[in-house]
Amino acid sequence: MARIKRSVRAHQAASSSGFGSHFTSPVKSNDARKKRKVTDLGAAQRHARVSDKLDALLRGETPSRPPAGAPGPIPDASTSPDVQMDPWMDVDPPDQPPSTPSRPPPPSVPPRTRLSITDAAHARLNDSWNRLLPLLEVPWSQYYERTHGRQRDPIPSALVYQCTTSCNGPTTVHNIKCLYSTFIQYVSVTTCPCKPVAVLLVEHGVFPASPTRPKTGVSYDLLDFYRALFERSCDAVTALAAALHTVYERRGFKVMTTGSQTEEQSVDPFRRLLIQAVQWSGNLRVRIQRRVEAALMRAELSIRQQEAQRNLTSTAGGGSVSASVPASAGASALNPLPVSTSSASTSTSTSTSASTPAFPPNTSTSLPQPTPQASASASASNRAHRTLIQRCPACFNLTRWGRPLSEGGDCQFGADGCYSYVHVKNAGDGPISYDADRFLPKATVDAVKRRLANARKSPIANPKRSVPQEVIDLCEESWEAANEKKKKSKADRYDASGVFVMTCRHGQPIVLANIDTPGEQQCYIIAMLEEVLRMLPETATIWQAYDVACITDHSLNLYPIVSPSVRSRVAFVLNGMHAYGHQWACQLVYSPRFRVGMGLSDHEGVERFWSRIRKLIPLTRTQWSSRRIWMLDQYADFVANEGLAGLGGWIHRQQQKNLTSKYRAASKVVDECQVTDTELRTQWAAQKVAQTSIRAHAPARLRRELDKVLSLQTQIDAVEKAIEDTKTTLKGTGASAGSLKILHGLEVTHERLSEEAEALYGSLNIHESFPELRSFPLEFAQTLLLLRDLKINIRKRAIGSFMEWETLDRAVSGRREALGTKLHQVTRKAITKRQPALLKAINKFNAGCATLEKLSPPNSSIPIPSPLSTQLNGLRNDPTLHEDVWITPSEGPIPRWLNDEDVRDGIRSLHVLDRCAEEVIRLNLERDNMRRWLTEEKDIIRRGIELVDNSSDSWLSFFLLQRQSELSDLDHQWTPFLRPQDINNRVITSSTASVRASVASARGVTPVTPFVSASVAPSIAPHVDQRSNHVSLPVASDPSDPFISISTPPLPQLPHVSTPPLQRIARVSVLVDEDELLEDVDFPVQGGDGGPDPDTGDTSDDEEVEIIEQIFDNSDDEAEVETSVVETSPDILDVQWEFKIPDRIDTNFATDLDARNHTLRFIATPGDFIHYVVRPGRRPLQITVGDLYPFTITTGRLTGFGLNGAARSLLNIFCAPHSPVQASANQCAVLSTYDLGRVHFKGSDPDMWRHISPTEYWNKPLWLIPIHRPRQEHWVLCVVVIPTRELLFFDSLASRGGWRQDLRDVMLLIARLVVLANRNKHQLHISTEDPDEKWSARPLFKVGEPRQHNDYDCGVWVLSMMAAFMRGNQDIQMANVDVPWVRHVLRKHIETLPIS
């Protein structure tokens, strides 16, 4: 039964009065099928034919048919941007005859959709361009050669081609708009079928926007300008199109649209045209560049074959056998190889039809890729593939390969992925006929991915582990890159997650890959390594830097992913910046600072590459996938070319700014430490063994429980802060008694929660997990483990802040590439938000260190952890941040690498010296590679010019001459930086032996400082020079050793090799007077300290750095503890170890004190009576019976309270009104021995001011600071002389050890006290940062001549020296036999003090 259609009004409610509810019929969308334009098959061809006939009749000509077999015009692509055809129109395929009648499709064939029609149209357009580009190569090249170095004239308004082949084809007239930068030139082009109009346009400097029937062309000048703009500011087609439209309108060139009955002004007429012109003119450039590369490969092959022939001839004549290159090997290595389809084409491009003509001879669509045969030939020739040499000659132009990994290997790479370069799936794809040079094919990556999956099913038995599994697990949890299953982007929205890149140590991009997996899987790094190894000799060794190198190296050890031969030649290391995010045990093995042979490279060239191309992120997100690959590849090529030009400058900066400065600073520290290199290396080996052991890490169960307790404690602290804020607010507003009562209840609850949290922590049964801690008090063990986990938490937070800091640093250093207001604000808010929590955790850790020192039992074998800086910059440069708290007691005394600051600083500086020595060898090796490459490349280009001049490709000689000119300029830029230099920047002319000898001269020893570990190369094992306390490294006896010699053969000098004058290529030198550059510029020429930048108007670098530093240096207002952030430069203090005999020596201190004692009444202290010392403005100092006892026995060690009380009491009697030394004593401020500890453990400002302000130190020229070294149980003294900025330090044992750390703490104490005095309105004008106001330090003893001959009299000596300074002297006359009597005098003096 048919369904009755009811009206919509039937659903309305009935109305009892009036006209009822108003009803409006719903608006329906029009049926597009009823109004769609119907076009029969072949209409476009018939329309074009009729238009040509009409044009011929208007000119008075008779249309003629072309003879059979005559070449016709290129088939119409019917999708030209100039045709303005509706994309929904049905179009007949080009291979279908025009006479085919229009009929509906068979029922079995589904109707074509819009997408399929668009793909077919794009494919036809792509085919048309591919057939046209080979015809444009010669005219393009000839036009550039004809106009090189000259002004280009616009195209004539009329072009008429006179046929020379008598093709008898129809003559056609095309009216074309030619776009120039400031005007539009209308051109009438008359030509015949044997001369396509596109070729005629290219001959006159205009590139067509369509391959078949162009209506618009773009001038070469405009395209060249856009290319340069693209290289500097990335893709700007839309901006250029809009700018052209605006300029044309202002100059009277109105662009109208003729698609309707009335003409309307066009909105965006040029964007699609420019996209086509830019894309395909770029493809034409790439084709010509590859033709040039093929010619150079043939030239290099010819030279290699001649060398091989000469070697064979000399061998046959009885000469010596030398290395030769077989002709067949050279041919397979240098000839263009079969095309390797990249991921950009295999995964996205539509294949062309079989009828598409092939490219002309000697061309290829991509850079030659290595095949197994090519790899074998590369091994035979012992040279890297030309592809790699061109990308970085400093790295790959070696002549001898196989350098051991322990010496740095042959090549060093960095790699990482970036997940900002996602690609929207809906953006689609289309063919552009471009095969990327640097991108790995998708098939290659997929094959490695499958091999990885299969290898993980069969692990290797008894694999080698570099670090414990627990460390690997922690690193894997910390890094997202280690989680291959973590989705970095939405799979339903994006079909590409990012880009992976490998760079050399100079930052040159070598290989890229498109990431199409959810996470950063290991297949990318392994595929790139294998790709590079295929282009290197079989003996090549590689160091690979990666942010999760420990995980990748662990996987290669566990599973048979690569062959054993490859595995033995590849080693992994962490990137410099990423190393700080790994566990300390992992850093000990994988950090580039500790790996022998790594030099000074940070291997962060990958991050610099991402920074260079970050402007492509929004542009490539919504492009075609193939065009995205094209843009990334093109820009990577530009970055590589610019980096190649600056390679000489990179070498120079590395030598001058990095190598020399670090070497000198490290040499100074090692000299000051006075520890032999052998001892430092022994301690370093012991440290690695201890800190990479499994026992050095807490069990996973205990670690999780401690994390939970710490998390709970953090939440309790937050609640406490909220309660305090609420309490303050309620009291200020006069809250009711009920509200205050409720608030008091919350406080009680909070206290109970805090007590329960402490009880929970105490119930973790730490002694079962750590039986070696049973001998320690429970409170000490709990505090120790709490500090360990707290430091791990601080390290994680600090590293996060470092990453955010790097983001802001980019905004400071790259002023012309701003970070962006929104991102800058977000980053700044994030830093501000996290800073209070980080500072609170650091203050809690520092307070815990002080508590742990108090809880530490005597002769404890567990060292107290060093406190952390509360300034982010100081924290970033603090190496102790990355060291875990030591939780295992040592057998016997505490190792020196744990407890001795001199040894710790010496180990770090020795690593720097080793890296500097390795770096100077590698830099000279790279200089040699670059010099050789310049010479070889000049010969190859000359041979290439000779070969093409005698062939059909003679038009390539222009580009070869251009390459020769560029190489000459490069030679001129590089020459000043390619002379081999030693570590002191002196030019050398011999082998590395000279380099090594020169290293020693900088430190005043002969012959050298340590270069490599003695365990690395037994043949060159170092021996210890006992007189200089340094290691000397014997010079290799074989000067031809490729790893020792800098040049083979050595080059005495580096002459500037200039090519003959280039007669066949024009060059114009534009001279600009320096005064022109400064005309009307209102800023200091000699580089002032401030002022706006002349180019951008931004603030100066110093101002921007100051703004950034304020973000980190200012403590948050809500922080509970206020601590002044002060830092002192290590160069501000000059330590002079020459002992000067003092002018004034106190000879009567003990005698005078003893005489005074006899005039007073002694007060016995039976029981618990305590003597006290009066201090103005503060409560008295107490000297208990326990503090007095060490004075009563000859072997007693003075306590802190006893020494501080005795010193203050002596000051009181010397400052008395009738004292003969009153004037001298009033000049002294006696600080407590605990004041230096407050600085060392980052005590709060209020606490420091409360303890030190009563001394009125700002009015005293002498500050007496007794220092206690708890580990050695030893007392020393430091005297600060304010007027002369001098530190005088005294040690009764006459040792240099320990003073570096003490003097650093004293300088920090001075800086803190200056800040506190000025803040509290006591003017104290002292600088500890100005390099022009340096401080000096000298000893009050002669090193090696101790005054104390036991281990318990140091406190008495310090008290006596303090008394000497209070009495106006600089030394005291006292012998060892006098010390017992002095003890007795001091005890009697204390007994004269009042008791309580």
UniProtKB/TrEMBL annotation:
- What GO molecular function annotations does the UniProt record carry, in alphabetical order? cysteine-type peptidase activity; ubiquitin-like protein peptidase activity
Pfam families named among the record's database cross-references: CxC1, KDZ, Peptidase_C48
Q: Where is this region: Disordered?
A: 1-114, 336-382, 1082-1101
Q: Which PROSITE patterns match?
A: ULP_PROTEASE (PS50600)
Q: Which spans does this entry mark as compositional bias, Low complexity? A: 340-366
Indicate, by first and last residue, each region the UniProt record lists as having compositional bias (Basic and acidic residues).
Answer: 49-58
Q: Mind listing the UniProt keywords for this protein, alphabetically?
A: Hydrolase, Protease
Q: Where is the composition biased (Pro residues)?
A: 64-74, 94-110
Q: Where is the Ubiquitin-like protease family profile domain?
A: 1181-1365
Source species, domain of life: Eukaryota
Could you state one GO biological process linked to this protein?
A: proteolysis
Which residues span the membrane? none
InterPro entries in alphabetical order: CxC1 (IPR041320), KDZ (IPR040521), Papain-like_cys_pep_sf (IPR038765), Peptidase_C48_C (IPR003653)
Task: List, alphabetically, the Gene3D superfamilies matched.
Answer: Adenoviral Proteinase, Chain A
Q: Where in the sequence does UniProt note compositional bias of the Polar residues kind?
A: 13-28
UniProt record similarity statement: Belongs to the peptidase C48 family.
Q: What is this protein called?
A: Ubiquitin-like protease family profile domain-containing protein
